């Protein structure tokens, strides 16, 4: 029984990780910075010229849509025969939108979801609508106008 009272605090600090705990915390803080979990595409200019084929009507599900990552465009079909095109750049911090689900157009970075019919955010942190892009449908071909 030779324990000294001062030995206990040192032991607790080591048990909690001490400096190693601080080191582990830094990557977690960096992950909150905005670019983790998705690619950044902050320039909303589409990478396709007006009139160039973008996709076909058959590739865009009714009530959903497709992400065209290379073109930086999201094409949706809110109701049968109604097509919309949006910039795939999230209005929160500029991440590239990554998927279209039953809930809407999802951003992988912080979880914003946008309406497939209006581009308005359904859940944040984004608080402004996606940039709508004018499109043309000719036969089954969809192009930007
Ligand atoms: S960049 Fe933050 S939710 Fe899209």
TrEMBL record:
Residues 33-60 are annotated as: Disordered. Its cofactor is [2Fe-2S] cluster. It holds the Pfam family Rieske. SUPFAM superfamilies: ISP domain. Residues 52-144 form the Rieske domain. InterPro entries: Rieske_2Fe-2S (IPR017941), Rieske_2Fe-2S_sf (IPR036922), Rieske_Fe-S_prot (IPR014349), Rieske_Fe-S_prot_C (IPR005805), TAT_signal (IPR006311). Keywords: 2Fe-2S, Disulfide bond, Iron, Iron-sulfur, Metal-binding. PANTHER family: CYTOCHROME B-C1 COMPLEX SUBUNIT RIESKE, MITOCHONDRIAL (PTHR10134). Iron-sulfur subunit of the cytochrome bc1 complex, an essential component of the respiratory electron transport chain required for ATP synthesis. The bc1 complex catalyzes the oxidation of menaquinol and the reduction of cytochrome c in the respiratory chain. The bc1 complex operates through a Q-cycle mechanism that couples electron transfer to generation of the proton gradient that drives ATP synthesis. This is Cytochrome bc1 complex Rieske iron-sulfur subunit. The lineage of its organism: Bacteria, Bacillati, Actinomycetota, Actinomycetes, Propionibacteriales.
């Amino acid at each position: 029984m030779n324990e000294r009272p001062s030995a206990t605090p040192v032991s607790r600090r080591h048990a909690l990780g001490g400096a190693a705990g601080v080191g582990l915390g830094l990557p977690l803080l960096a992950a909150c910075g905005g670019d983790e979990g998705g690619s950044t595409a902050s320039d909303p200019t589409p990478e396709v010229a007006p009139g160039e084929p973008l996709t076909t009507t058959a590739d865009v599900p009714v009530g959903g849509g497709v992400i065209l990552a290379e073109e930086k465009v999201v094409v949706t079909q809110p109701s049968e025969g109604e097509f919309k095109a949006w910039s795939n750049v999230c209005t929160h911090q500029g991440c590239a939108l990554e998927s279209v689900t039953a809930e809407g157009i999802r951003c992988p970075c912080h979880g914003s979801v946008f309406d497939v019919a209006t581009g308005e955010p359904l859940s944040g942190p984004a608080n402004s609508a996606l940039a709508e892009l004018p499109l043309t449908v000719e036969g089954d071909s969809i192009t930007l106008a």
